[in-house]
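Whiteboard transcription, Tuesday session. T.W. wrote the C-alpha cells on the left side:
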C-alpha cells in the first residue's frame, strides 16, 4: 500500500507539478508582456478562421457551470501530467547538452585562462619585486622598500581581499555553470569501492561501480529487507528540481526573445517588466539548478550509505553466528 502511495507521490512531484508550473509560468510571462491589442487581434483572427478546437472549447469556457468546471479541471490535470512527461525528458536532454557545452568545454577553458592569468600575475609581481629589491636606493630603506613591493599596510590586506574576491567569484561562476551533479559527497567517495567489494564477495560477482547500479541494488535490498531510507524521496525531488530548473530556463529564454526580437508585440511597459521577469527567472533557475544537484548527491549518498550499512551489519551478524 505504501509503495503505491510513494509511486503516486512520485508522479505528482515529478510529472504533474512541473506541468502545472510550466503552464502557469508560461501564461504569466506571456500575458504580462504581450500587448492587449495584439491579443485581441489574435482572438479575432481565430474566430474569423474558425479553428475547430477553439470553437469547441470557447462555449465551454464562456458557459462555465459546475459540470463544465469539472471538465476544465480534468483537462488541465491531464494536460499538466502529459506536459510533465515532456518536461522531464527534455530537462534531461537539456542537462546532458549543458554538460557537454559548459562542464566539458567552457569551464575547462575558463579554468585554463584563470590559471594562465594567475601565473602571469605572479610572474609579473616577482619580476617587479626583484627589480625593486635589486636597487641600491631601497637597500637601506626597508620601510620604503616594503611599501613599493606592497608588503605593508594597507597593501597586504587589500591584495588579500582582492585574491579572496577573485577566488570567490571564480568558484561561484564555475558552480553556477556546472551542470554535472556530484554522485556522492566527497567524504563518501571511498565507500563506493568498499561497498562494491562487499557485494562482489557476498554474491561472487563483478558488480559495476556505476551510480545507477548501486542505487538499484540498494533500492531492491531495502525493499526486500523492509529497511527505511530516503532514496526514493530524494530521487523524486531531484527529478522535480531538474524539471523546474528547465522550466525556469525556458521562461528566461522566452523573456529574452520577446524583449529583443518581438518588442513590437509587447505592451508599453515591457522595458520595465522584461528585466524584472528576466532576473526572477534567472534566480528561479539558479535556485532549482542548485537544489537539483544537491538532491542528486543526497540520493546517491542515501543509497550508498544504506547499502554499506546493510552489508556491514550482515557481515557482523555472520561473524557473530
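and on the right, the sequence the group agreed on:
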Amino acid at each position: 500500500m505504501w509503495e503505491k502511495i510513494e509511486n503516486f507521490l512520485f508522479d505528482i512531484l515529478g510529472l504533474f507539478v512541473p506541468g502545472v508550473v510550466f503552464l502557469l509560468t508560461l501564461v504569466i510571462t506571456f500575458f504580462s508582456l504581450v500587448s492587449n491589442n495584439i491579443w485581441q487581434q489574435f482572438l479575432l483572427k481565430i474566430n474569423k478562421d474558425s479553428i475547430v478546437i477553439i470553437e469547441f472549447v470557447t462555449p465551454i469556457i464562456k458557459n462555465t457551470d459546475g459540470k463544465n468546471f469539472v471538465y476544465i479541471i480534468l483537462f488541465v490535470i491531464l494536460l499538466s501530467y502529459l506536459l510533465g512527461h515532456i518536461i522531464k525528458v527534455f530537462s534531461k536532454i537539456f542537462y546532458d547538452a549543458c554538460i557537454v557545452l559548459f562542464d566539458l568545454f567552457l569551464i575547462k577553458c575558463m579554468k585554463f585562462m584563470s590559471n594562465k592569468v594567475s601565473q602571469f600575475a605572479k610572474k609579473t609581481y616577482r619580476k617587479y619585486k626583484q627589480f625593486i629589491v635589486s636597487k641600491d636606493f631601497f637597500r637601506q630603506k626597508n620601510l620604503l622598500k616594503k611599501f613599493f613591493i606592497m608588503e605593508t599596510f594597507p597593501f597586504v590586506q587589500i591584495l588579500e581581499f582582492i585574491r579572496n574576491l577573485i577566488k570567490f567569484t571564480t568558484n561561484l561562476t564555475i558552480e553556477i555553470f556546472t551542470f554535472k551533479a556530484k554522485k556522492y559527497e566527497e567524504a563518501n567517495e571511498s565507500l563506493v569501492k568498499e561497498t562494491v567489494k562487499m557485494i562482489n564477495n557476498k554474491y561472487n560477482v563483478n558488480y559495476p561501480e556505476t551510480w545507477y547500479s548501486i542505487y538499484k541494488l540498494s533500492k531492491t535490498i531495502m525493499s526486500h529487507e523492509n529497511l527505511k531510507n530516503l532514496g526514493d524521496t530524494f530521487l523524486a525531488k531531484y527529478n522535480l528540481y531538474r524539471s523546474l530548473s528547465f522550466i525556469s530556463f525556458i521562461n528566461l529564454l522566452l523573456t529574452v526573445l520577446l524583449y529583443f526580437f518581438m518588442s513590437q508585440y509587447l505592451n508599453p511597459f515591457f522595458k520595465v517588466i522584461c528585466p524584472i521577469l528576466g532576473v526572477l527567472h534567472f534566480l528561479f533557475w539558479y535556485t532549482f539548478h542548485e537544489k537539483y544537484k544537491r538532491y542528486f548527491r543526497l540520493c546517491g549518498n542515501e543509497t550508498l550509505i544504506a547499502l554499506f550499512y546493510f552489508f556491514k551489519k550482515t557481515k557482523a551478524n555472520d561473524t557473530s553466528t
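Someone added at the bottom: The chain has a mean pLDDT of 85.
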